[in-house]
Amino acid sequence: MDSKLQPIMKVLAQEKTWGTVTLNNCVFEVTLTKDALQLTYYFISWKEQSVSSKIFLQSSHLKAFQLELTQTEKDFHVWTLIEGKTSDFSRLVDGRWAFETAEQAAVYYQAYLLEQSEGAQKIEDFNQKLGDELQVFFYDKTNSEMMASFGLNDKFYFFYFRKGKNIAKVFVVANENIKVEQAYQIAAKAGKLLK
Questions:
Q1: For residues 113 and 92, what is the distance between their CA atoms, to the nearest angstrom?
Q2: Are strands 166-174 and 89-99 parallel, antiparallel or unpaired?
Q3: DSSP strand E in 14-88: where?
Q4: Which tens digit of pLDDT belongs to each residue from 84-115?
Q5: pTM of this prediction?
Q6: Which domains does the chain have, with CATH numbers?
Q7: pLDDT tens digit sequence for 21-57
Q8: Region for 97 from its dihedrals, namely left if φ exceeds 0, alpha if ψ lies in -120 to 50, beta otherwise
């Protein structure tokens, strides 16, 4: 069996509740609920562009949060807490994708929305605007059995948004007292860099 299909096969075997696979011209998303198996597909109509380093967060944006750049890849940067410093935030991943048109970015955004949520819980009542589309997700010990069993107290926030022909995913790890509005301050800084 093609290993690309494994995420969907795990859903069919009821080992997972969702899976996304990319085939030649299409992205398939499968979701399992207690009542139904839902299949959604998106035709691939995009061509990713190289991402300019200018649209990533910079040290000047994160100085107040005591984070330093520790990893640089072509489509994401990782920031971690500076050794010896204290902060409410311990880790940040700033991911970016660029496309030729806003329409291509919109299709990509929807096609990978479930995958980019990483199975976290959607925050329904978050009413801040960031670009053209925004979804916010989180997990902590209240909705993650693994975190609860290990006694972990961090909160993980995912801000996945599109602005024109650019998409960003800002992943913020904070202490348990940090609310989504406080983590959003970092995502908002990231959003201002997109055109």
A1: 19
A2: antiparallel
A3: 18-22, 26-32, 37-43, 48-49, 67-72, 76-81
A4: 999 999 999 999 999 999 999 999 999 999 99
A5: 0.88
A6: 1-44 (no CATH), 45-192 (3.40.1000.70)
A7: 998 889 999 999 888 999 999 998 888 899 998 999 9
A8: beta
